[in-house]
Write a structure and sequence with these properties.
Strand content: 5-15%
CATH topology of the largest domain: Rossmann fold
Structural class: alpha/beta
Bound molecules: NADP nicotinamide-adenine-dinucleotide phosphate
Number of helices: 11
Largest sheet: 8 strands, mixed
Order of helices and strands: EHEHEHEHEHEEHEHHHHH
Shape: elongated
CATH superfamily of the largest domain: NAD(P)-binding Rossmann-like Domain
Length: 259
């Protein structure tokens, strides 16, 4: 099966490096031919002469240009997409926007990977339009499963997903930094404290996933009666920790909806 990426930037390269090249024959095209030639060589994939040649040649087109460039690029290639599957990772462009920019008959899957695609641990949302047949949806899922975990969601939930999976790594980094800074306040070197916290955050997420328990029951398990942890938890609550996080997510969603 031939897959073509239009746009060969950070996200396309992250996806391509995770793909099984035995199974998928990968082509790329981008803005600058010479720059794209080097990227194709480094990734061990083929380069198309231009966006149109790529769209004509492949079975699946993955649109990986910036959202503001999408109208121009789709107007170039839309006549060559008939009967193909188009996947779009462009943030903020809905299935309806994409159909308006191409054709009402096109099978389109809207996809939202996150920054962790660069280490093949993306948390990716996927949503097909009503024309996508099951086998094509499975192919889209297979492509994005190669760079992490996928979640098929309703399109109305994309803004929420982009806050709790797209923006949340930034919130989590702030939390990690706050914990390690507290380590520094109490005399530990920053690098060491950050490494300790990152290891604890990663293991706690794995524990949650593997145990199948809900977060609060794990909080209770760490909190001995009259002990040290519950002292810290009460302090977090006095400082509106949970409410602050929820406010931050709500603000992020509201901003996304205004864009
Ligand atoms: N990065 C993320 O964490 C992330 C997360 C979720 C979704 N996304 C989405 O992924 C898409 C790509 O983002 P990115 O971070 O990979 O951006 P990027 O690194 O800037 O890549 C964009 C690519 O598009 C190319 N391009 C520009 N104009 C073009 C044209 N007319 N024809 C063909 N290619 C063209 C660029 O080439 P030049 O470099 O030569 O200009 C570059 O290779 C965006 O729509 C974004 O919303 C990104």
């Amino acid at each position: 099966m031939k897959i073509g990426f239009i746009g060969a930037g950070k996200m396309a390269q992250a996806i391509i490096s995770g793909l099984d090249k035995e199974k998928f024959e990968v082509y790329i095209s981008s803005r600058d031919f010479e720059k794209t030639r080097i990227i194709a060589k480094n990734l061990g994939v083929n380069q198309a002469k231009d966006n149109i040649e790529l769209a004509k040649f492949v079975d699946i087109v993955i649109m990986s240009v910036k959202p503001q460039v999408m109208p121009k690029v789709l107007s170039e290639v839309k006549d060559y997409l008939e009967g193909k599957l188009m996947l779009s990772i462009a943030a903020g462009l809905t299935l309806e926007n994409l159909a308006d920019l191409t054709s009402k008959q096109l099978e389109i899957v809207r996809i939202m990977p996150n920054i962790n695609a660069t280490i093949k641990e993306s948390t990716t949302a996927i949503c097909p339009n009503e024309l996508v047949i099951d086998t094509n949806l499975e192919i889209a899922k297979e492509i994005f499963s190669s760079i992490g975990q996928i979640f098929q969601i309703e399109e109305k939930d994309f803004s929420t997903f982009s806050a709790i999976a797209g923006s949340s790594p930034a919130f989590i980094y702030i939390f990690i930094d706050a914990l390690s800074r507290a380590g520094v306040l109490h005399g530990m070197p920053k690098d060491l404290a950050t490494e300790i916290v990152a290891s604890t955050v990663s293991a706690s997420a794995n524990m949650l996933a593997q145990s199948g328990e809900n977060p609060w029951s794990l909080v209770d398990k760490v909190s001995s009666p009259g002990g040290t942890t519950v002292e810290g938890i009460v302090s977090l609550e006095e400082n509106r920790f949970v409410a602050s996080v929820i406010d931050a997510v709500t603000k992020t969603i509201e901003k996304d909806k205004r864009l």
